[in-house]
Amino acid sequence: MPPWASGRRRATMASMSGTKKRFERQVKLVRDLAAASREYLPMPPGPTPLAGPLEVVAKFAAAWESKDAAAIGSLFAEDADYVNVVGLWWTSRHSIQRVFKRSFKDEFKTATFTFEKVSFRQVGSDAAVLHGRWQISGQVDPEDEVADVRRGMIMFVLEKVADASWLIVSAQATDIAIAADTLIARDGQLTATSYVPEVPNLPDPEPGSV
After folding, report:
1. Residue 47, domain member (yes or no)
2. Which domain holds residue 27?
3. Checking CA distances to 142, which of 15, 17, 72, 123 falls within 20 to 30 Å?
4. Apex CA 150: angle with CA 137 and CA 104, to 5°?
């Protein structure tokens, strides 16, 4: 092996070793942050309303139906994250409750919210992820005209807290765009679109041909 090749090999190995060490430091940092989050998760001033993670479905829907922003806020940790359907990101129980309070006076004042389907996954003993498909009907537009029905998805990440009850620590909602698989940006506007070719309408087979 020529001397220059040996030197290049040593440099490559040193680079790989440095990358591995940086990765290990990043992993340790993430683990430390996760541990700190579990230890210092802010608690609400009173008893939390969720005795189990699946209760979030009924509690959230009931609070939405009664237009009770405070009840929705009580389901979240003080430092919870909520990303709405257009990417607005709220980072506290107070801001989440404030936005729902305004929405219940405006676009959702006559609207109804229901869960159509729910998927649940327990992650260890103190965390859970829940996906729900929802429907909103009766929403009004800025001119106070009733809009069409919306369907979408919401994801809740919940954590068991010190009193063995559960709080939402993160949530994200998105609308379902019919006959689309992604969005495309043009002139500052997002449009639902599809890259999947349409299946042609085929004639029914003749009797006895199949």
Report:
1. no
2. 1-40
3. 72
4. 55
